Amino acid sequence: MEQTYTAVIEKVGKWYIGYVEDLPGVNTQGKTLKEIRENLREAIELILDANRELLLRDLRGKKIIREKIAVEL
Questions:
Q1: At the N or C end, where does the chain have fewer CB atoms within 10 A?
Q2: Cα 49–25–41 angle (5° rounding)?
Q3: What is the pLDDT of residues 7-53, one digit of tens each?
Q4: Which alpha helices (DSSP H) does 1-73 contain, by range?
Q5: How far apart are CA 14 and CA 44, in angstroms?
């Protein structure tokens, strides 16, 4: 499943600094736009995986309902 997020990239000196406005904790840097985009993709994957793991660990043994919710922005 592919999802799209908005990256904000800023040029600071010789570096690019980037973050994803929709996902707190996703931020990185790179020397080129290509590198910053790759780093952002990796950071998104890492944050989403970590959040999923933490949630599943906290919910272990509990009765829950999981469902998808669509939001139009």
A1: N
A2: 60
A3: 999 999 999 999 999 999 999 999 999 999 999 999 999 999 999 99
A4: 33-59
A5: 23
